[in-house]
Write a structure and sequence with these properties.
Layout: E1 5-9, E2 14-21, E3 24-27, H1 33-48, E4 70-77, H2 81-96, E5 101-105, E6 108-113, E7 116-121, H3 129-133, E8 144-147, H4 152-162, E9 168-171, H5 188-203, E10 206-216, H6 237-247, E11 258-268, E12 275-285, E13 301-303, H7 315-321, H8 323-341
Parallel strand pairs: 3-4, 8-9, 8-10
Antiparallel strand pairs: 1-2, 2-4, 5-6, 6-7, 10-11, 11-12, 12-13
């Protein structure tokens, strides 16, 4: 019996796996068995390409068949070959101490190890050679998304998330020649679209941009898109918070100090319809600032009915429940479907 049961589940995919089988992928219900058998035969070659790491005395030439172990995967539902291959490869890496990497490129799924190309899985209709190989030798394997920011901390968070999809991440620091895009929109979506779509047209790349801010109900949604410069062109976090407290000085009932942090994320690609997701984080504006974590209006923002200020949360706690964290979760659900449709 397997020591561990592996599982991957999202809205469109559900896989279960165990180690100790014969490199088999099977489907339940209406999942097409012929497609899974062919895919299983292809992926099985990855297991056989090197010693499993758990045998003894056979050198680098491979494993004894008597000692050979493989995966046994059951597919409950599937919309993405990439997610299935990534799931099986994850099992192989954990059980055999391999370092296989799964990436997407122009709709194909690419598996590499130690800079060596081992496996390419093509969609049924194939892919354009120019899209796969690129127009110059500067193109590396794997799709790339450009984050429209110079903030390395924000980039690190997005890199962690897109790594799960086999997509490489870069930011504007990799492109110092690009101009700053002025946020002249009247809504969060307009500003995020301006950044994402402008930079995508300039670079020909897939680009992710975000716009976030604080909306206070009694102020008619202000500071909104002007959150970063609420107190003027030379605004600081301290001056913005001071102005907000001033604006609410005569609002004493906490229920009348309701507010929401908002984030809109836009992914743009040349000649394609952009993907838009958004999320709100409800709360209230406190009478005084508390907490040393976070930035912006975090010291004044009371999280829901918890009584805690956003600046009192750890980074991990905030990422789980914040507007940006919720928007990113929505993006991770919608992005694979959007990319496949495009």
């Amino acid at each position: 019996m397997a020591d561990k049961i592996y599982e991957y589940k999202d809205k469109e995919n559900w896989f279960l796996g165990e180690w100790g089988g014969f490199n088999a992928i099977s489907g339940l219900g209406n999942v097409c068995g012929d497609d899974l058998y062919e895919l299983s035969q292809q992926v099985a070659k990855l297991v056989a390409s090197k010693c499993c790491g758990k045998c003894h005395g056979h050198g680098e030439g491979g494993c004894h068949k008597d000692e050979f172990n493989g995966y046994n995967v059951t597919v409950v539902k599937k919309s993405s070959d990439f997610q299935l291959i990534r799931f099986v490869v994850g099992m192989i890496n954990e059980e055999t101490n391999r370092h296989l990497e799964v990436q997407q490129r122009a709709g194909a799924v690419v598996v590499t190890e130690d800079d060596q190309l081992l496996f390419v899985h093509l969609p049924e209709d194939g892919v354009a050679a120019s899209a796969f190989f690129g127009k110059s030798s500067e193109n590396a394997f794997g799709d790339t998304i450009l984050i429209a920011t110079r903030n390395e901390g924000k980039t690190k968070e997005f890199r962690k998330m897109f790594d799960q999809l086999g997509i490489k991440v870069e930011n504007l620091n990799n492109h110092p020649e690009l101009p700053e895009v002025e946020e002249t929109g009247m809504t969060f979506e307009e500003n995020a679209r301006l950044k994402a779509e402008t930079i995508s047209k300039l670079t020909g790349k897939m680009v992710l941009a975000d716009d976030s801010g604080l909306k206070v109900d009694v102020l008619g949604g202000l500071p909104g898109v002007w959150s970063a410069r609420f107190s003027g062109p030379d605004a600081t976090d301290e001056s913005n918070n001071a102005k907000l407290l001033h604006e609410l000085a005569m609002v004493f009932d906490m229920k009348d100090r309701s507010a929401q942090f908002h984030t809109t994320l836009v992914v743009a690609a040349p000649d394609k319809e952009s993907l838009v997701v958004e999320a709100d984080w409800p709360g209230y504006i406190a009478m005084e600032a508390k907490g040393d974590n976070g930035f912006g209006y975090d010291p004044l923002f009371l999280v829901g009915e918890t009584g805690r200020h956003a600046a009192e949360l750890t980074a991990d706690e905030k990422n789980e429940i914040s507007h940006r964290g919720l928007a990113v979760k929505k993006l991770m659900e919608a992005f694979p479907v959007w990319k496949a449709e495009q």
